[in-house]
Amino acid sequence: MSIEQNKEKSRRLYVEVFGAGNADAADEILAEGCVSHGPGSPPAVGRDGIKRQAGVLRTAIPDLQVTLGDQLADGDRVASRWTGSGTHAGPLALPGLSLPPTGRPIAFSEIRIDRFEGEHIAESWFIPDRLTLWQQLGVLPESNPAPPSRPVTTQE
To answer: Rounded to two decimals, what is the model's pTM?
Structure first.
């Protein structure tokens, strides 16, 4: 496949699977044994993890809107930055925590690198901005660092 075709497949993952909730599209986009690498967890093998993740987000944020920001591609890799936004109107199942709806508007982003084999994404590495999401949902306090009380100087 061409670089442009690979970029289109990656775009479809965000827009169709996450944005529109079309889990069946994951079967057309991802290889059967695809490997997904996320921070703080062991690699997940197969399509079910992405389908489950999309379902969790769409349950918690039924009006989820997905926007693809940037895409860069080289060879068999496509790097994408996308954002999701909407209203936290349903339960959100986080690892070790279930969060009831807050009614708050939220927005979050993710950077993902997809590696292609033939027509499918075979492997992905993703970094979601969980800190911002969890702060918006009240799971973590928002941080507003106070400015220093005196000028900071360096000594050589």
So the answer is: 0.84
